[in-house]
Amino acid sequence: MIRASVCMATYRGAPFVREQIESILEQLHDDDELVIVDDASPDDTVAVIQGIDDPRVRLHAEPVNRGYVRTFENAIRRARGKYIMLSDQDDVWTPGRLELMVAHLDTHLVVAGNYSVLGENGRMPARRPLRPGYDRKFGWNTLAILVGYRPYFGCAMGFRRELVRDLVPFPEIFIESHDLWLAILGNATRSISHLSEVVVERRLHDYNVTPLKWRPLGTILTARLMLARGMLIARRRVRLRPPTSIV
After folding, report:
1. 194 - beta bridge partners?
2. Residue 161's closest CA among 78, 245, 80?
3. Pick from 81, 120, 122, 148: most CB atoms within 10 A?
């Protein structure tokens, strides 16, 4: 039996992936696993991962690039744990992150924490951090996702296996922001815990998937339409399922 699965998507991650993997392995138990799906990296990412001798690491290398959203979905499908965490390839987990999030997942389907930014000038806290007071504000949380006011980042989130049946397949309209799809679903199920703690240090660089600058208005509007449609899909999926009990 696998207790916790950490799902990581990699692509051109050779410079930083070892440090991230080591920060994760330090927190894993013997009955945990790190599931890594590489999205046909053209660099030495796969070789770096293969050089880490640890039986808890499960690597699957895709022959064709499919994009990070589908790669995360692939990793989630391969996860075997009761608790599932998401991880980017170039961040660093903060000490105690796994046990903290597992504790909250004993009573919630989804958990979301905060992040800090690891940059040239040191660590900087995120603006508008998540707070435990958001736990019961499902409607406000959903609206805040739509307007871009809640910092839900997949690298700081986790969920229980029971949610997988509604989470995947990711809606085809989600060509980005799989983490917001998870946040939408967590609020739709009315079972999401918000942490005040920082659980990951994000490394910002020129190759981040998350854009570092403001995007064009047309791109922003397209993304908002995607999120609105995703909210409707989440409501339908949750409505079609019997209530999920957490044991």
Report:
1. 112
2. 80
3. 81
- Whether residue 238 contacts residue 231, with contact meaning beta carbons closer than 8 Å, is answered with no
Question: Distance of alpha carbon 135 from its chain centroid, rounded?
Answer: 18
**16-25, 155-164, 216-225, range with the lowest pLDDT:** 216-225
Burial class (CB within 10 angstroms; exposed 0-12, middle 13-18, buried 19+) of 178: buried
Are 151 and 129 in contact, with CB atoms under 8 Å apart? Answer: yes
pTM of the model: 0.91
Question: Distance between CA 175 and CA 66 in Å, rounded?
Answer: 10
Residue 134: CB atoms within 10 Å: 17
> How many CB atoms within 10 Å of residue 135?
17
DSSP 243: P
**φ and ψ at residue 104, rounded to 5 degrees:** -75, -25
Interatomic CA distance for residues 74 and 70, integer angstroms: 6
